[in-house]
Amino acid sequence: MKKHSKKRKNPAKRRAPVGASPGTIFSDPEAAPSKVHLTSYNEQELVEEDITDLSSLRSRVRERAVTWVNVDGLGNENVIQEVAKAFGLHLLAVEDIVHVNQRPKVDEYGDLRFVVLRMPRSSDTLETEQFSLLLGPGIVLTFQEQIGDCLEPVRARLREGRPRIREGSAGYLAYAILDAIVDAYFPLLEYYGDQLEDLEADVLDHQNQETIRSLHQLKRDLATLRRYIWPLRELMSSLARDESGLIDETTQVYLRDCHDHALRLMDIVESYRDVSSGLMDLYLSIVSNRMNEIMKVLTIIATLFIPLSFIAGLYGMNFNPQKSPWNMPELNWYFGYPFAWGLMIAVAVTLLVYFKKKGWLG
Asked: Among residues 282, 252, 276, 228, which one has the least CA distance to residue 105?
């Protein structure tokens, strides 16, 4: 079973200084450098390019029906500010983009819809990053903490000219991106399902510190996943009911399906948490039963030796039989030693037979 050895950074530590004014941007010094990529398309053509001259960014947006501007890395404040200025982003939205400790949510800023959620980066470790998306008329802006994501299937559909996405609106592109992120949780949950199966075998066969440590880590990971997935239901439901016109009725149907996927994820997480709690109780029960078995064996051994110790102590007393005929006269008996052994063996056998009849020997 794969061990969780890598310590994850606490995103709550990456925040603005206490008392900072609203809209203050505090960039994480360890954040990846910013890289802007533009994808612009309509039914007939698709253009992809990296943008270095941000002054021309806004003008290129108007060239085609839908434009997707993706920013990888949040380490360059100037780049973030230039993109925000080009599209008129609210200062609070920019602050939430850069300060990557936000709860998944949907906010409205004029004719823009601002969405924040956690995106899995791996299918076998709980490594996530904040993903921010802004939806406007004909425009989708996305911000990621690092290069690399789970959105390649969306890009492949665009490059292959799939009619549904190439003919769709910016709202449909936003749905496709969000749906890919939600679906990326399923392989991660499958991995944790396999972990639970392995831990179940370990709990039954190996009750040791490594097993309880892995089980406790798994419970913590599932609690973290629940915190990431729980708000997705409200997020998708809110977008599916949006009345701004950015998301048409056809796309809202797909968003309701995405909402169902979020519900399924939540059900799986809850069931896994119940199983992990059950495994923890099973582990403690097995350890307790094993301790009881050990205590029973020790108690039986102690019980056997109590009368034997009494007999040995009795015949070990230093009374002089020459002073009185009552001072342990059997010490001078020819068969005294074999008699003492026979007496102790008889007492031990009698006790064992009694314990057997009572069912105390298992």
From this structure: 228
Q: Which CATH fold would you assign to the domain 18-285?
A: Beta Polymerase; domain 2 (3.30.460)
CA–CA dist 245, 252 (Å, integer): 11
Phi, psi values for residue 301, rounded to 5°? -60, -45
Burial class (CB in 10 A: 0-12, 13-18, 19+), 99: buried
> For residue range 215-247, what is the model confidence (pLDDT) as tens digits?
899 999 999 999 999 999 999 999 998 888 888
CATH class in words for 292-358: mainly alpha
Please enumerate in sequence order all residues whose Cβ is within 8 A of that of 139, keeping only pairs 6 or more positions apart, or say none.
61, 66, 67, 68, 69, 87, 170
Q: For 95-108, how does the pLDDT look when each residue is reduced to its tens digit (9 = 90+)?
A: 899 888 888 999 99
**Minimal CA–CA distance to 351: which of 280, 282, 303?**
303
Listed by start position, the domains of the chain span 18-285, 292-358
**pTM metric for this prediction:** 0.79
Is residue 127 within 8 A of residue 103, CB to CB? The reply is: no
Confirm if 99 and 92 have CB atoms less than 8 A apart: no
The C-alpha R_g of the chain, in whole angstroms, comes to 36
- The rounded distance, in Å, linking the Cα atoms of 174 and 153 is 14
Rounded to whole angstroms, the Cα distance separating 285 from 116 reads: 42
Please give the angle made by the CA atoms of 346, 349 and 355, to the nearest 5 degrees: 140
Q: Is 189 or 24 the better-scoring residue by pLDDT?
A: 189
With beta carbons less than 8 A apart as the criterion, state whether 154 and 176 touch.
yes
How far is the C-alpha of 195 from the C-alpha of 124, rounded, in Å? 10
Q: What is the pLDDT of residue 5?
A: 43
CA separation for the pair 154, 175 (Å, rounded): 10
Q: Which of 30, 187, 33 is nearest to 120 (CA)?
A: 187
Residue 185 · residue 265 · CB < 8 Å: yes
Q: Tell me whether residue 156 is exposed, middle or buried, using C-beta atoms within 10 angstroms of its C-beta: 0 to 12, 13 to 18, 19 or more.
A: exposed
